[in-house]
Write a structure and sequence with these properties.
This protein has 299 residues and is of the alpha+beta class. It has a 6-stranded antiparallel β-sheet, with no helix packed on it. It has a 5-stranded antiparallel β-sheet with strand order 1-2-3-9-8, with no helix packed on it. The longest helix has 24 residues. It is elongated.
């Protein structure tokens, strides 16, 4: 009896340990994973209706601005073909991660004016906003290993009818690893020729609608526990310039008060000198006065 109990306990311990290990190995919590190149590139995913939650992890073999690309060849193509395919490309420009939907019109670097080459969906249309339905959720680097967690719709994206992805594995997968041009910007990252690519004879596919997990981790899971800040690839709208404040109207200057005019000062003309007639009259008056005073004392 004790032997049976011991076996049950051991089985329970093994199952629990494997379950925890599986959870720890799940990159960014995504339950499904498929090796594209063993030990070099893995694709992780979770499909929520029509929204694909996807992550790419791998080794870039070099440090700096690098990218991972994953997508599908055109419908009806029997083996992997890069030209004419569509891809989700994620990488780093400096310290900031990016994710964009690309059209692979040719093998040349992108001519953003014409849209020829390996270009984002908005290239070739100068009037189109530089936006994308692909989004960066998390991104991490550790030496020459890198992981990028992104989302994109399964259906047509960014006004392109030919870039819908199948969920049932009916198209051949393409993938690549390579450098990003040093002069790139987050809005227009230019991906250069790949160092790792899908072999032309490959017929591999990925079925998003079926569970699968056969991956060996590449990047340290302790590193991916902390996400680097994602960057928006949308060009920010320019902030409106502040309206100039109206200049205050000048206060009216007070009207000058007229100073009172000075009153004219009358001319002080000197009195004319007395004439001889007036002098005689004055002398007679003085004599009369003296005579009257003398008579009064006499009386």
């Amino acid at each position: 009896m004790r032997t049976v109990e011991l076996v049950l306990v051991l089985c329970l311990f093994v199952v629990t340990k494997d379950s925890v290990a599986g959870q720890d190995d799940a990159l960014y919590g995504l339950p499904n994973c498929q090796e594209l190149v063993p030990g070099v590139l893995n694709v992780h995913w979770n499909l929520d209706d029509t929204l694909l939650d996807i992550a790419l992890e791998g080794t870039t073999r070099e440090i700096g601005n690098q990218y991972f690309a994953f997508g599908f060849s055109q419908p009806g193509v029997p083996s992997a073909r890069m030209t004419g395919s569509t891809a989700l490309i994620g990488g780093f420009v400096g310290e900031q991660p990016f994710a964009l939907n690309y059209q692979l019109a040719s093998k040349n670097p992108c001519d953003f004016a014409t849209g020829n080459g390996v270009c984002p969906d908005f290239a070739g249309n100068s009037t189109a906003p530089k936006t994308t339905s692909a989004k960066v959720i998390q991104a991490n680097r550790n030496g020459d290993t890198m992981a990028i967690h992104m989302t994109r719709p399964l259906g047509p994206t960014d006004g392109k009818e030919n870039n819908a992805w199948p969920a049932d594995g009916s198209q051949v997968v393409i993938y690549a690893i390579g450098p990003v041009a040093e002069f790139s910007s987050l809005e227009e990252p230019e991906v250069l020729i790949h160092r790792v690519k899908t072999p032309g004879v490959s017929t591999a596919t990925v079925k998003f609608d079926e569970p699968k997990n056969d991956c060996t981790p590449i990047i340290d899971r302790q590193v991916t526990a902390t996400a680097e800040p994602p960057a928006s690839t949308d060009v920010p709208e320019p902030e409106p310039e502040p309206s100039p404040e109206p200049e205050p109207e000048p206060e009216p200057e007070p009207e000058p008060v007229p100073e009172p005019e000075p009153e004219p000062v009358p001319d002080m003309q000197p009195s004319p000198p007395p004439t001889e007639a007036s002098s005689g009259a004055i002398s007679s008056l003085k004599a009369s006065s003296i005579l009257m005073i003398s008579l009064m004392f006499f009386v």
